[in-house]
Amino acid sequence: MSSDEKDTDDETWNKIQAKRDEHKAMVEQGTNPSRKKLRSWLNNTFRVKMSDGRILIGMFVCTDADANVILGLTSEYTEQGGEERILGLVMIPGRYIVSIEVEDNSVAAAS
Predict the structure, then answer these.
(1) Beta strands in 1-111, from DSSP E residues, in sequence order
(2) Region for 76 from its dihedrals, namely left if φ exceeds 0, alpha if ψ lies in -120 to 50, beta otherwise
(3) pLDDT digits (tens, 9 = 90+) for 40-80
(4) d(Cα 27, Cα 4) in Å, to the nearest integer?
(5) 2 falls in which pLDDT band (50, 70, 90)?
(6) Which of 27, 60, 82, 108 is packed most tightly, with the most Cβ within 10 A?
(7) How far apart are CA 68 and CA 97, in angstroms?
C-alpha cells in the first residue's frame, strides 16, 4: 500500500468516525430528524395495507430497524369490504407492509 492510499484510507475513516460521532450526539440530544418524525406519529392513527389484501387501522405504538410496526386498538378490514374484526395490539412484519397512511390529527385539533 502506497503512502497516498494510506492517507486516503485515513481520511475516509476520519470522515466516517466524524459522521458517526455527529449522529450519536444528535441522538443523545434528541435532535435526530428521523426520531422527531417518529415521535410526532406516536398515538396517531395508521392505516396499513398488507400484501395479503388486509387493511389494519390502529394507533401507532412503535417500529424497529426491520420496519416492523406495532399498532394498538387495531381493527382489521378486507379489501372486499368484509366486517370489521377487532384485533387489539398487533405487530405487523415489515416485509408484509405494502403502504402506510398516517391520519392527520392537526385538522381535528384545530376544530
Answers:
(1) 45-50, 54-63, 69-78, 85-92, 97-102
(2) beta
(3) 999 999 999 999 999 999 999 999 989 999 999 999 999 88
(4) 35
(5) low
(6) 60
(7) 9
